[in-house]
Amino acid sequence: MGKKKGGKLKWVIIAVIVIGVIGAAAGGSEDDKVKDATEEVKNNDGKKEGKKDDKEDSKEDSEPEEKTEFYLGETAEQKNVQITLANVTESSGNDFAKPDEGNIFLICEFEIANNSEKDISISSVMNFEAYCDDYSLSQDLMGLQAPEVEGKNQLDGNVAAGKKMNGIIAYQVPADYKTMEINVAPDFWSSNDMKFIHKK
Q1: In the prediction, which pLDDT does 114 show?
Q2: Which of 103, 120, 125, 185 has the fewest Cβ atoms within 10 Å of its own Cβ atom?
């Protein structure tokens, strides 16, 4: 009889221990699951924040600065009007029109395309301002008599909607000039002037 009771007690103790071990193991795994889930949430938040920052950075990178300086062959555009410095020609003049000693004529040819819905007016005097090596320049009418100018029009007049204009402006500059700048400020542009740069 004593042996039977002892045997039952032994199995009861073993069962209690086994249940305790299983319970502890199950509790531990739940804690691990909670811990893993917490870390995953943190990581996901970090990733989301990272993605947001990446998007903001890419947005900032994708917004180019407004271009205000243009070189030979480049086109400035605003309000559906395009202006291009198409050509720059140096000239020593001829027997009838010669620049001052040490100077040359610089003949600047512009192409203007009016793709807006309104007519525009172009004035080589009012809309164009020139500098050579930072010194202000006025147009030189004698330069318009240079042989290289033959067959070309002066850059003045109206341009109807959907039409184009091609014309020249002549300046007298030192033969050893370095940089020519022409600021264009047509009355149909309300923002900053567009600067065309030509380097010798």
Answers
A1: 94
A2: 125
- The pLDDT of residue 49 is 47
Give the bridge partners for 71, in sequence order: 197
Q: How far is CA 122 from the centre of its chain?
A: 27
What is the tally of helices (H) and strands (E) in the chain? 1, 11
Which two tokens mark 118? 């309104």
Residue 102 and residue 161 in contact, taking contact as beta carbons nearer than 8 Å: no
pLDDT(42) > 70: no
194-199 and 69-71 strand pairing: parallel
**Residue with tokens 């091609």, as numbered in its chain:** 166
Beta pairing partners, 105: 91, 172
> So what's the pLDDT on residue 2?
47
Contact indicator for 137, 178 with CB cutoff of 8 Å: no
Q: Does the model's pTM come out above 0.85?
A: no
Domain 69-199 has CATH 2.60.40.10: no
* pLDDT band at residue 61 using 50, 70 and 90 as cut-offs: low
- CA angle at residue 18 from 16 to 24, to 5 degrees? 100
Q: Tell which residue, 89, 68, 74, has the closest CA to residue 173.
A: 89
The pLDDT value given to residue 53: 52
How far, in Å, CA of 105 to CA of 131, rounded? 14
Residue whose structure tokens are 């993605």: 51
Amino acid at 195: K
Domain range list for the chain: 1-63, 69-199
Amino acid letter, 101: E
